[in-house]
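Appendix B, Record 12. Input sequence as logged:
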Amino acid sequence: MGKRATSEPPDGGWGWLIVVGAFINLGLCTGTLFALGVLYVAFLDAFGESKAVTAWASGIYSFVSVMFSSVGVGLCKKFGHRAVVMTGGVISFVGFFLSAFATNIYYLYVTIGIIAAFGHSLSAVTAVDLVGKYFKKKLSVALGFAMAGAGAGQCIIALSGSLLQDIYGWRGMLLILSAIMLHITFAGALFRPPPHMITHQKLTNKGLGEEAGQKPNNAEEMKTFIEQPAGETQKVVTVSEEKTPRCQGLREFLHTVHDFQLFKDPVFILFIMTSLGQNIAFGIIIPHWVKRARDFGIGNTYGALLPAIMGISQLFGRPVCGALGNLRLSKAYIWYGLATGVAAITTVASIYLPSYAAQATCIIVLGICIGGYTTLIPVVVASFFGRSKIGYGMAAHVQMMGIAIMCTSPLAGWMRDEHGDYVIAFWIAGGAFMFGCLATFLMPIVWKRRKIKQAKQNNGHVATS
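Logged structural output:
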């Protein structure tokens, strides 16, 4: 007899190659944002536009890459993770390759801000979503190693970006980046579906009558096959396109992009509030940390090393936080909330510690905290809403990031111009982190109360029946 099909993820095996592929994808997608930071000055010199006009190239890139991440998750439902990620790598390659021939900054709005960014939106969150389908017991550990790629990409690009530009110029650097983006496609080739999903697909195909030789009459028909007990003939119900609403396909796709039922769940609303607080703070401290270091009298060379230091701390901190989230004696949301709370305290403390050693220490702690809670997001989503919602949860988080960065980064810059320092802006960042911390610890309380209420309602229905 053959092996019985199981719906449980393998928790290893080929899954570790999925982790490697996710590590590469996240490293390249995250590192690109820092590469654009290096290219910002070159674009200013090349095109002679204002700082605000030039900054929109990276701003549009950030917005598009995160806001369309849920589209990638939705496309995976129809085409699979491998096809979506590999397509995203090719699109990113095309975007950066065309950017090397730019004649004005508005050209880059399209090639980098839209084309390359859309390619990345199909790759990063999609890779994390597939890791969640390969692991259950070891999910936190696997995500820790996979998402360490973001720290690696940040560190490598921060250290090598300036060197590449000095040697090859900004056009040559863009051509090199375009070739590097093809590695997303190669990593995506590893993304085969897990065995339990393949088994489910085969069973679905059998249920559609393929084994019995039944095939659709044409591509415009939709057939629904009703499963019968063993030994009985399957009944086929054919629904013609004329009886199907024309907007049904669009509606179904929108439901694969976002699970709108989650927004009716108060626990998910608290998760969104946590994410919003984290990303408001992120949108202030990350773009302005190096600039504030210059206000403290730290030189450009040492200041430029701070993002690399943060990347290194994330590279090692993410696997550690992933392992902590996998401990049986603790809950992942506890470490998730603690990381957000420590980030709040560190952000406020950094305002009053102007020395380079203190700034480097604060950026290390923040790197561990930000990398830690980012790693634990899929684990927290899985624990409260189920593993099938990991992609939706990650997409919601990065979309909050895109909205927050677009709004808070210019606001922090305006506060710096108005008040001459970043004190108020970084206090706001610390408060936003603390807001996210409090919302995190409210999640299990609301979740337990909802379970108790549902249990009482079920008992009431049983008693009345």
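The first helix runs from residue 15 to 47.
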